[in-house]
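The material for today's practical consists of a large collection of protein records. An example says more than a description, so a record of this kind follows:
***
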Amino acid sequence: MTLELTSDSAVRNFAPNTWRTSRTGWYYRVLRNGSVRAGDQVRLLRRPHPEWTIERIQEYLHRNPDDMARVAELAAIEEFGAECRNAFRGRIAKAEARERRAALEAEEKGQWREFRLASKTRQTPRISSFVFEAVAPLADPERLDPGAHVKLRLGGGLVRAYSVVGGDRNRFELGVALSEASRGGSRFLHRELREGGKLQVGRFTSDVPMGSMASHHEFVAGGIGITAFLPLLEELHAIHYSCVLHYAVRSADEVPFRDRLERLGADVVRLYDKAHGQRLDVGSVVRGLPWNSRISFCGPRRLMDEALRETKAAGLGGDDVHFEAFEADASGDPFEAVVANRGGRVVAVGGEETLLEVLRRQFGDDDVASSCEVGNCGTCKIPVKEGRIEHRGTALSDDERANSMLSCVSRGVGRITIEL
């Protein structure tokens, strides 16, 4: 073998010419000092990374430096010399720093961030838990308040809000039931989203109030409704507040997050198993509340309707009771809304869409805030100047309904005038 050594100065622009032309030749590294003589046999002993030729490495070192997936692979190759290895690792560090800055700015502005599904766990035949991790983590993520909600952008442009059962702004967990009448949200999460898959996550909001002035807390939940209250129950139990959960399920097999409920103990959790003929009597629960109690409800529509009737009959309202519906019927007759402070612009709301959806489509997301989008929280409340409203949801008091509406579920009759 004849080796001809040429100084860098002898060939102008030697290094850039190799990657521009892809004429890389062979690269060698000395592992053990010795002599090479004519006639010596050369044998391939080991090729640890056969997929990475010199030409392909230079593709991502010089021509395509922003492909972070490939750069990350290269940064993990220990056989590189320090200069090459540190070039790739430095590029990764800079990209991660940019992503963290962008994520922090997005969080501060309430914009969307990218998360990946870290794990999916079957809790019951119908309910699974989903753990999501931020692609670009925040430096100080903060623990989420009990009762937090978050919106997800799902397949087909769907946006759905879910209760968070634990975590922080970098890693959080949801519990989601596969609905028999799914409009696409739960079906996408259960059947289409795979571990490692990515989606957009909106800002976190805290919509279930703690009610710290009450001396006793009772929670009534049905099925997946437990997700709205589980972290709050754990928080109250940890600080020795008096609290009780009345939890109705189809059968004992339909209890999600069983280990967490068992840790609360039988004094806190009262389970009603329909398969064994056990029925949750909402009226009896309401009438049996101790003095200075606060009661919260979350479950299917039949349970929520019964809860509304019984609490009204008992004279409960205001700070004494909270409704956390996870479904709402927002459809109805079409109507028109005149937006007075947008030049009197008229928007038409179809029978299968909400005023909130139409306003966002016409004016952008920033003009109408929202959170739960099922009438629980009142975030999407807007002033009504004229017209009749078919009120839905539980977030507004009777006084507020006189001049406001929930744009996520309530509907106008004929033509109404509103302001943003």
